Amino acid sequence: MNDKSNGCSRRDFFKTAGAAGMGALMSPLAAKAQIPMKGKVDLLATGQAQVPTRSFGKTGVQVSTLALGGMFDISANQLMLRQALNWGVTYWDTADCYHSGSEAGIGKYFAKYPQDREKVFLVSKSDARDPDGISQLLERSLQRLSTSYIDLYFIHGVRSIDELGDNTRRWAEKAKADGKIRFFGFSTHRNMEELLTRAAKLGYIDGIMLTYNFRNMHTPGMNAAVAACLEAGIGLTAMKTQAERSWFNSDQADKAGTELMDTFIQKGMSEQQAKLKAVWSNPNIASICSQMPNMTILKANVAAAVDTTPLTSRELRLFEQYALETADQYCSGCGHICETAVAGRVPVGDIMRYHMYGQSYGRLDWAREQFGKLGPDIYRNMAQMDFSTAERCCPQRMPIARLMKQALKEFS
Predict the structure, then answer these.
(1) Which of 92, 203, 231, 404 is the most buried (most CB within 10 A)?
(2) How far is the CA of 120 from the CAs of 68, 81, 114, 144, in angstroms?
(3) Which domains does the chain possess?
(4) Which pLDDT score is estimated for 263?
């Protein structure tokens, strides 16, 4: 399905929406979703509002419940960093691999306002896995960020807990002893339940950033994994909280989607703000990392965070119903299932994420860039493979075969 299946471009809508989530579109009333929460934006304008904080695991640190996701050109958004801090968004997230000068942009800010460094809970990430590589990237990040230490340092995009061995533990302990990082952990987009459960047994993980949203937060496996991390004192940061889809079927879930949207509009709340509040309904989630590349999105997200009125049980049930009715459009990150079904010859989970960025975030350029790194062997496998077994194994019942063919056409 292409972006224009409803007679208008979803990408064009994303560019003009200016809402609290990146391109979230809940058919059929998405056009009505872009509204501020009643009374909250004016409160922000007075300077009286502050984003609340929560404890971050066993660290003893309080972090803002809303974190600034840094996957955009921060160098060109210095005023927004200043405003985020004024509103109490003190958790800033970036990574060595983020494009558009994310780390350098934060470093530019700290160079101009060095007094603000101590106010920020700074997070960055390493794509490397071996200790030497992690050290090299950490030193580069410290230089880019104009700081002598990083509060929380993640190994980025972990797929298996086996990526974190004794060498990793020793590296983290030394980096802490040297004062270069305060806390250590990892981020993950897939196999979250298993990763969290096993990480809770390691004894040296301080924080985890994971895909967590209204679609996966109520599953028994996720509840058990979060409970294990809570018991172990691991701080949890939710990302991908808008639960964006890899493809769209606008004819599905009209009833649940309409009822949800009508409810939010009556409360002066956008769909995207409601999705944030659904995640905040779990007090064990310390913060939500949200990409906020402009002041409009920042303001809307802060308004949602400042309004601590919880969603009702009925609203949460509507979210669950909507998730069930649109499950086949959302990849839940259990890539080990579908990829085992294709003998590991195609990274199905990664390609589904590229679809999500292309369809829901309007980031076809990024999707093509990532897809271009897979190589000719993967493309050949995708073109020749029978994905029927993978489709039968998929808990979401996603049309994997069609989406793999679509990726070859759109991303090549």
Answers:
(1) 92
(2) 11, 11, 11, 16
(3) 20-324 (3.20.20.100), 331-411 (no CATH)
(4) 85
